[in-house]
């Protein structure tokens, strides 16, 4: 007779994770992991999900989403082992939060469009952060920059920081102000190079230049990380075309020269137009 209450896929995954972490019969590698050691894998898995989406391969996406889900299960199991939250608590908390942040769906509020909902969403997050700060003992004064995770890729974090600041009026009146700032920062980088400044000074000025460029991306409503990722892919594609063209000539890039490779680069670039 079939089981009247068959195990669900998520329950099975939770049991697999618990077995991997079992102190006697589990996996030695899995048993020694901590929140800190797993965090880099979580970031990596999120990027692999993005890559699968970009590739259009839905089977790969299913696989990568599974790996990302496993990361959540991992944290839940490590917490449960010490009497903390478990997977159900994570899921319940998230459901409550989504209901709270969508009063136009689960309540009586109304929003005109997606842009209005974005504003409402951000306002709700601000209110939640204020409430959390109020309830926290000896907490630092609330900042509009609170909640922008330091672990984010630097370009994404720069865009988010400037977006937060812009909400309270710390913003250029027009895009020309950002362009002028980029020119200013580029001139400062040039000056440091010309004076053979220490590497720390160059790093500081180059960081300012990249921050200004991220700000420009925000003003143009462009995701700077996606823009750079696209350029990385473009560079890879064109350089591999150089390698293929050189291989037909019986050469490798190391056996070529800049002039030849630059000409092949332009060929690859023109072929994409």
Describe the fold and architecture.
The structure is a single chain. The chain is 71% helix and 0% strand. Helix 11 (224-248) packs across helix 12 (258-271). The model has no long low-confidence stretch (mean pLDDT 91). The protein has four domains: 9-100, MazG-like (Helix Hairpins), CATH 1.10.287.1080; 108-142; 150-221, Helix Hairpins (Orthogonal Bundle), CATH 1.10.287.1080; 223-273. The protein has 273 residues and is mainly alpha-helical. The protein starts with 8 loop residues before the first helix and ends with a helix.
* Unreliably modeled segments: none
Helix fraction, binned, reads: over 70%
Specify the number of helices. Answer: 12
**Morphology:** globular
Query: Looking at CATH, which topology of the largest domain would you report?
Result: Helix Hairpins
Q: Which CATH first-tier class of the largest domain would you pick?
A: Mainly Alpha
Q: Structural class, from secondary structure content?
A: mainly alpha
Q: Summarize the biggest pleated sheet.
A: none
Q: From N to C, what is the helix and strand string?
A: HHHHHHHHHHHH
